[in-house]
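Narrative summary of target 7.
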Amino acid sequence: MNASTNPATGKPNYTVKSCELLVAGANVQARLFTLAPGESVPWHYHSEITDHYFVLRGALTIVTRSPASERVLEIGDRHRLSPGTAHFLANCGAADCRFLLLQGVGKYDWIKAEG
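Modeled conformation, tokenized:
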């Protein structure tokens, strides 16, 4: 378990409006997130898994380093982040943002990256 993970729950140490674990296997998982306006997921990366984002409501801002990029995804948009890519997620809009996050294939980890 890394330092940015709560040892009691195995979950990252940040708060969002809602995060529902839909599927969890040895090498893949799916979560349904809701970010309230102004909420964010801190800078982090994963050593093995690829993140696949599918926006269902609102708009999701994804900022990355190496390569440096900022994207705003809207309803129906999707985006893929490769393992090792430091990223930051935010809801910069005025309404809730809801998205499906599929992660795999590989061992799940959540490693804090400096902001």
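The domain at 18-112 is CATH 2.60.120.10 (Jelly Rolls).
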